Structures
1.
Amino acid sequence: MASWNEEHKSGSMQAVSEEAKGSGAASVRSTWRSELCAKMALSSEAVIVSEACAPGKIVACNAVWSELCGYEADEAFCHTPKILQGKGTSVVKASQFADAVRSNNTYTHSEELGFATRQAVNFVKLLNYTKSGRPFVHCLKTWRTQDEDTGAEYFVTESHEEKGTAVSRAVLRSAGELASAEEKAASASNAQLAATIILPLLVAWPVLQAVACMMNSHSMPMV
């Protein structure tokens, strides 16, 4: 699913919230925005759309982005992508990326979602934070697009988490977040171990005791 902010107005367009497999919703709405939302809903990448003009608020996102970052659509709307930044985010790197995005005037049309030309796209890897405060290495690519119905300009950003690589560990380490991330991973691993091994043993222990008592009661007396 992909949602567009109901309070964000561009000309006379109305809000759009479309499911990828909706029953005829896309065929009823033929606007640029509904087509973009439909493509976002089908994307396996986390996708947001933000205003090209200041302050650059988020106006649309898909379910993959909400799952990755922890924010529901109505929580993200009216915030900028900076909502994901935290103590370990490189302010310099984030600022340089924002400047590069704003200065790139090459347009990519909505039908090219996921296939934007390299000249039109800006790439970066940032340490960002989910709503719960979990640090993660965020791989982003952003390009400029234009609403073909109203002429309004937006930035589309596709992203995903990079983990388990030398680069991701280096980014976490440089921000002092590697130990925290590894501790959380170890904690999750231990919890899984307890659930798959220790817990079944605890449940089976009374049965084993009962069997042992039965065997003792039927054993031959010693001479």
Note: Residues 189-223 form one domain.
2.
Amino acid sequence: MKAADMEVEKMQTKLARWSQDQSFEFDDKFNVVYDGAFLFEAWLSVEANLGSETAGVDGLTAEDYRKQGLRENLFGLSDRLESGTYEPDPVRRVYIPKGPDEVRPLGIPTIEDRIVQESLRMVLEPIYETDFSDDSFGFRPNRSCHDAIKFAYMELNPGAGRYKRWILDLDIKGYFDNVDHTELMWILQDRITDPEVLDLIYDTLKAGVKENGQVQVTGKGTPQGGIVSPLLANVYLNELDWWIKQWTEGPRGGPEDWTYVRYADDFMILTNGDKETAEAMKERVEEFLVEELNLRLSQEKSSIRHAQDGLSFLGYDMIADSTTRACKTYVPQEAKEYIRGRISGATDGGTDVSVRRKIRSLNSVVRGWANYYKYCTDAGTVFNDVGHLLWHRMTHWLAEKHKCSRKQLIQQKLDSKSPISINGLTLFDPTGMSTIRTENPRRHGHPYLCEDGDGKPEPQWKKRYREGHPGPDPHLATDEGRPGSGDQSQWARVRDENTCQSTGCDTSGRESTVVHHIRHRRSADDDRIDNLVVLCHRCHRKVHHTDQVVTVQHEGMDEPKELT
């Protein structure tokens, strides 16, 4: 790893510009993958991910990797990549719930393999964003589920003048498990001709899966859980995206006016033709998938239906209403049952959990759920129902916690009855959330070629704490050669929501808080995030200038701790 590392953003812009020339050969870009700045930026994204404390087959978490000596580890990783001695480990197989009676397999790479995959993604994404279709929305910068839903909504809206009567709701059978490695490598070689980059991708695909102590060879598929897997999956289905354009780019309003929208392996084709026209298209798609990509449709999950019969797309129930000449979207029944179950489960049982942790946990769940469904036509009504349930369940839990009646709680304990506020902590109330009218999604230009930088994709670690790079040389930017002591403090601010972890007061602005070391700093190891806590200036002065005890508990602490 060289001392003079390249600037990540400038290099990504160059890659994007070069990719505008379809004849440009990316034949010598492996050095970018193992460049020090790219590996460090990749490390920051891996560390900021919520799964950073989940180990791969080597048993190391992100904290373990840093404790071993981050600088030395990254230099060593760069050297092994450059010399060709790096080999990815098998992923660790785990299973996560998918539904009431289903589980989904997930492959957990080692921390080091995640760093390499993230660096590889950072090199490949600016190139392939040039090639990707506007009709693809999944796992791409500046695009989301909501964009795909809005796009489908406009095509199903009779009042928008773009009404499509028949819908092919299609799902590829076991897509991520059935990507053909040989075909994928041929597709990649149309753009990437650097043999070392291609070898790294191939080795990652073939690394295998370890389950119950046994390593299974992976003959096909992209491991779900791998950082670079979603990008490779999009590269593969980009062939389908562009093949379908021969129909979707026809004249609007004709007898066979087609629209296509894809989010990962879930896609729809809409037409204003008749049912027979839609059935013929389904046959064409099936034939293309089998012959060109060695994939098959899931007959159980694929269907052809009339827009007025409704459909479910990315968690939204959608139906075209010919009476009102509008497309309406609804929160599905299972989504309502899910949030009610989460609220009831969180407020059942014991009261040994702190009020702070309970409120923050519920806020995270309910706010995230409401943000996803805020575009639904019936969002206001559903949010009111959920808000009332949340209020009743939480006031009951708080009354038990404080060993008082609900009336006493409201009169003596709460700062505010609605929304519930206690000791400066406010429970998120979905009834007060503004629902948003569904509009046509914005169409972005190339995310790495924005003239003013607005709209460029933000690394995950920057999304988490909204702060810039630690310095031009990230490995030597801070004293003692310790990368990211400043970054850890910004991450602490995000974890604590810039809220004093003693009083719970919701401070207004960064200048009103301080990031405090719980244990006095004696070495770089004391800069890790679990030793940092956000305090307001008043509490910070108490710790340093008075004999008063300040009690804190951030979400990473099992029990409160006294600061003196």
Note: The chain has a mean pLDDT of 84.
3.
Amino acid sequence: MFSNDRLLGQILLLSLLGACLWVLAPFMTALFWAAVLAFASWPLMQMLTRALKGNASLAAGLLTGGWVFIVAGPLVWLGFNIADYIRAGTELIKNLRVTGLPDAPEWLVDVPMVGDRLLELWQTVDEQGA
């Protein structure tokens, strides 16, 4: 009887471990990335702690702020740039719908093998107002 209770406990514990891993699965990449950053910056953390006279909390805060600045800063900058390009692209599309396409460039016909087709496509798109 005792072994059945023990087996049931082990099965439940294993099930709980599996459920925990299932819940954590979407975050595994971020957790591994955090572990790599923590491991790589450990010497810097020790140096900052010594420089701040043993204040590990302040050193950790400075290190975290530095990582946020290094990692998140360029991503925020990229997001703002993408938003500007999307805004400019929508304005271009609005203007093209009103004024139509400009004349086809002269070099378009000279493109080997597909130049004539490209010119026809350009004119078709311009006539359709797309």
Note: The chain has a mean pLDDT of 91.
